[in-house]
Specification:
It is built from seven helices and 21 strands. It has 521 residues and is an alpha+beta fold. It has three domains: 88 residues, no CATH class; 45 residues, no CATH class; 313 residues, Clam (outer membrane lipoprotein receptor (LolB), chain A). The chain has a 16-stranded mixed beta sheet that branches. A hairpin with a 5-residue loop joins strand 17 and strand 18. It is globular. It starts with 37 loop residues before the first helix and ends with a helix.
């Protein structure tokens, strides 16, 4: 346990051997319970979140000061904790808490850790230590090797009104099944609007919130985007290893629909048990895998694995795949070099029932939720292995550890650390660890929040703001190979790119027949 005033720093690490992730390691008795929205709701703080020594939950943050006032208090601001040792009586009411809040604010102003980053700061490898405590080890590695950040003011991300209305209507009837591997009573919207970090099931509720997140509730079609692979280096991209262009990246949800009929569920769900359908095809470049594609069906039955098909360009034949290969970037289609695996195409996409989850804590961390550029700009300071400079803001996040149930699936990663934004229920970044516990892969997603995917859109325009992923990168941290995807593409003819909840695709699109017909070998 760190002493008051101490701040743990991440050591500079060699490329091939990054030590085990050390962010959050405490047991449930020391979990923080202060949600960033608690000042608004003025909920009474739970004194069980800290012991008498004001022990942190293991996040790389330390107490700035200790005071003797009633009730243990933690203020989670910019990722740093102000701990006040507990003395006096329990059960403090809100009239007593209000002056404490004023005291905390005054302390924050003088706390050096509070001012670590501020809007207007520009983060480079030279001052990367400023954000070492505010991002994941995988993101910090990207900054060290050249990715830059522009720190901006935090902005709120509102749920789409139809999703919010569904949450208000149905959330009260939702609960976890006894084995926590299914939801009981779910119809649409957010399953668990209130997360109590002291709840032993908090990690599972957070995962299920992410499964039914508001970004794409009904259907989506991402058209003609492109990606490229290269190795990390300081400076501009020296050599493009591979260039990809994909015709469609599409999905259709049969449950939790809020904007496009049939709502709230497709009648097909009752007969097939399919939860969602996904298709990526046809691949248009490189030439060696032109026409290839992937289909994936997810089922609501926790005991049933995904149905997965791939269309190989070389043999021009369909092939069934096992769940476990979805964690690998290896492809049966040629020798194309890329780092993306289907289990992380858009966050943590593995079947949630095949993993065990551990709640590691909640923390204020940096993420991109209001991206400035679209199309995104290739970073000129890290070998073109990210997009930069882009706007990063402080976000309230939950941090989870996911370990595979080896009796059901055997992925490459021994564990995955998920950083979940508490407003969007989307993961701005995810770190994967190899079988020896070393950092293996990093996945970063840049999001924008607006009423259209690009400023000059003519078709995909919405009556409210919604989130769009505008870029993503998967990096093999141990080799330095990274594949960046631009949404919309930098070299593709399609400009608007994202068509979300517009009925752009139906269930026929997610059939092997449709995939074969679309191939142009």
């Amino acid at each position: 346990m760190m002493e008051a005033g101490q701040v743990e720093r991440i050591p500079m690490r060699p490329r091939t051997r990054i030590p085990k992730e050390k962010i959050l390691t405490a047991d449930s008795s020391s979990r923080p319970v202060f949600n960033s929205r608690s000042f608004k709701s003025r909920r009474v703080l739970n004194s069980r979140s800290f012991d008498s020594n004001c022990q942190d939950h293991g996040a790389r943050t330390a107490a700035c000061v200790t005071r003797s006032i009633p009730r243990a208090l933690i203020a989670d601001t910019l990722g740093y904790k102000i701990c006040v040792s507990e003395s006096g009586t329990r059960g403090t009411n809100m009239n007593k808490v209000q002056p404490i809040v004023a005291l905390v604010v005054s302390i924050l102003v003088s706390c050096p850790a509070f001012a670590q980053v501020k809007p207007g700061d520009f983060i480079t490898p030279q001052n990367a230590s400023k954000v070492a405590e505010l991002v994941s080890p995988g993101v910090f590695s990207k900054v060290r090797y050249g990715m830059t950040m522009k720190i901006v003011q935090t902005e709120r991300v509102d749920r789409p009104p139809p999703y919010y209305a569904a949450t208000e209507k149905y959330a009260g009837q939702v609960r976890l099944s006894d084995d926590r591997r299914s939801l009981v009573g779910y119809v649409a919207g957010e399953p668990f609007p209130l997360i109590d970090p002291n709840d032993p099931d908090a990690s599972y509720k957070i995962i299920w919130n992410s499964v039914f997140r508001p970004i794409t509730t009904d259907d989506y079609d991402l058209r003609y985007y492109d990606c490229d692979s290269s190795f990390e280096r300081h400076g501009r991209q020296e050599k493009q290893i591979e260039y990809f262009q994909i015709g469609h990246y599409a999905g259709y949800n049969l449950v939790g629909r809020t904007e496009v009929d049939p709502m709230p569920a497709d009648p097909d769900f009752k007969s097939t048990g399919r939860h969602w359908l996904f298709g990526l095809y046809p691949i248009l470049a490189p030439q060696e895998i032109r026409g290839a594609g992937l289909l994936r069906w997810r089922y609501a039955d926790p005991e049933r694995g995904d149905d997965i098909w791939t269309l190989a360009a070389g043999t021009r034949r369909l092939r069934r795949l096992n769940d476990s290969i979805m964690s690998s970037s290896a492809t049966p289609n040629g020798t194309s070099a890329h780092t993306w695996d289907p289990d992380h195409y858009s966050g943590f996409n593995a079947k949630p029932e095949q993993y065990f989850y551990k709640f590691l804590g909640e923390k204020q961390m940096l993420a991109t939720m209001h991206a400035i550029h679209s199309p995104e700009i290739q970073c000129e300071t890290d070998g073109g292995t990210s997009v930069c400079p882009e706007a990063w803001e402080m976000r309230h996040m939950y941090v989870l550890e996911a370990r595979p149930d080896l009796s059901r699936v055997n992925p490459l990663d021994s564990k995955t650390v998920i950083y979940m934004d508490s407003e969007t229920w989307f993961e701005p970044y995810i770190d994967g660890y190899d079988r020896e516990g070393n950092l293996f892969r990093s996945h970063i997603y840049w999001l924008a929040n607006r009423d259209r995917p690009v400023p000059d859109a003519h078709i995909a325009i919405y009556p409210f703001k919604r989130s769009f992923v505008v870029a993503a990168v998967s990096t093999d941290v141990q080799s330095g190979l990274a594949t960046v995807c631009y949404l919309p593409g930098r070299e593709s003819a399609e400009h608007e790119c994202w068509y979300i909840n517009m009925g752009a695709v139906d269930k026929v699109f997610f059939t092997t027949d449709a995939m074969v017909r679309a191939a142009s070998f």
